Amino acid sequence: MMVRVVIPPHLRTLAKISGEVQLEVGEQATQRTVLDALEAQYPMLSGTIRDHATQQRRPFLRFFACEEDLSHEPPDAPLPAAVASGKEPFLIIGAIAGG
Amino acid sequence: MSKVRVLVGTRKGAFVLESDGKRDKWQVSGPHFAGWEIYHMKGSPVDHNRIYASQTSAWFGQVVQVSKDGGKTWEAPGGDIKIGPDTLLKGKSNRFVYDTSPETGKPLTTHQWYDGTQHPWEFKRVWHLEPSLTDPDTVYAGVEDAALFRSTDGAVSWHELAGLRGHGTGPQWQPGAGGMCLHTVILDPSDPNRIYIAISAAGAFRTDDGGKTWKPINRGLRSNYIPDPNAEVGHCVHHIAMQPKRPGVLFMQKHWDVMRSDDAGDHWKEVSGNLPTDFGFVIDVHAHEPETIYVVPIKSDGEHYPLEGKLRVYRSRSGGNEWEALTNGLPQANCYVNVLRDAMAVDTLDSCGIYFGTTGGQVYCSADAGDHWSPIVRDLPAVLSVEVQTLA
To answer: Does A43 sit within 8 Å of B90, measured CB to CB?
Structure first.
C-alpha cells in the first residue's frame, strides 16, 4: 500500500528531500504505520514528529487528510480510504504558534 | 598564519565567522539550519574540523548535527543508516532518553516544580555540547531537564551519566526562569576523571570518578530566595569558567554575585567588588593571564539589559574585586540587549581575543584583551552562544 505524505519544510530540509514522500506501509495505513515507514526511510526524522520516549505527537504538529484534522485520532486507527489508496496525501503540518 | 573561527548559535540558525590572526576582516557563512534554534556549537580541541551543534525547535524537538570539515557541511549522525529488508533502524543522534535502569540505581524521575510539587523529568533540548579533550568522537551534552549525557561514537548515540541525576538532592532541584537546564560542562585537562557541571537552579556539581558519582560544590554561595544560608543545592548558577592551565581555580557568574573558588569548587567567595551590578550571565578567563577575568553586568533579574543603556564589559586583572569598565567601541547609549550565559569566548592567540554575542544580534570582538571592541556582525538573530576556535 503506497501512501503519499507531506512534511513541513524544516523537516524536508533535515531529510534532504523536496516535495511529497511516497511510502510503502504494508497492509494497513494508520498514523503509526505511516510514521514508522517515514522514520525507517528517513532515520533523521525519528524523534522530530513523535517524542522518542513517549511516541506522542509533538504538541505543535498536527495531522490532516481529506480536509479533516486527524491529530487526536488513535495512532492505530485506519486512515481515510483516499489516503490509503494514494489519492490524497497525509499532511503533517507545523502549527502556527509563537507570535 | 594563525586563524580564528567563531561559532555563533542564534534563535534562527548558526553562523560561522572566520578571520586571520589580525581579526579585523571577517568572512561570514550561514545561516546553517535556518529557522532552527542553535543553542550551542563547539569544536573538538583535537580535531578542529569536527564541530558539534545543538539544533532545536519547539516544533520538532532536538537534533544534533556534526561537521567534519570545519562547518562547511553537516550531517545528523545516524541519520543516514541504510535500512536492510528486515532491519528497522531508527535515527539515534537526537535520542536522549533518561536512564532509569536498576544498574544505575534507578535515578529519580521527578524533581521540584515551581509550585513545590514533584514533576516528571522531561527532555526538552541540549543546552551545551562539550567535546572531549582527547577523543574527537566523544562529546558530552548538558540538557534540559537537567542531566548529563555522553556519546563515544561521534554523537550517533547518547547515554546518560545517571549518577548526577541520581544524586540525593535531585528532588530539590527546580527550574529557573529559563528551564531546568544543565548549561555548563567543564572538563579538567589535568584529570580525565574530573568534570564540573552547573544547573539552573540546582547549583554546581563535580565528579572525580568520571561521572559515576557527584558532589554538590556550592559552599559559600548565598541566594536571597533560599532561607537556609548553607543550602547545599537550589542556587541559580548562570555560568562557570576555568582557565585550562589552572584547573583548580573556578570563576562563577551566579544569578546575583560573581564568585571564585581556589579549591576546585569546594569553597567559594564573592569577588563582585566594585561592579556596578553583579547580576549577569557570562564570565570568562583570559587565555594567558589566569587572574584576568571578564563579565558583562546586567541591570537586574527583572531587567535583563545593561545598566543605564551602556554596554560595558568589566575586566578584573586581580581575579576579582577590582574591576574596570571596557567601553571602547561598545554602544554607550540606548543599548538594551542581553548577553546570554554561553555567549562569551576567548581565543588563544598571543594577543588574547575576547568575543561575545548579544540578543540584539551583534557579535563583538576585541583582539587586544578587551581594550578595543568592534562588531564582527551587527544584525544576526538573537545570539544564544559564541565559541571560538584558534586554528594554527
So the answer is: yes
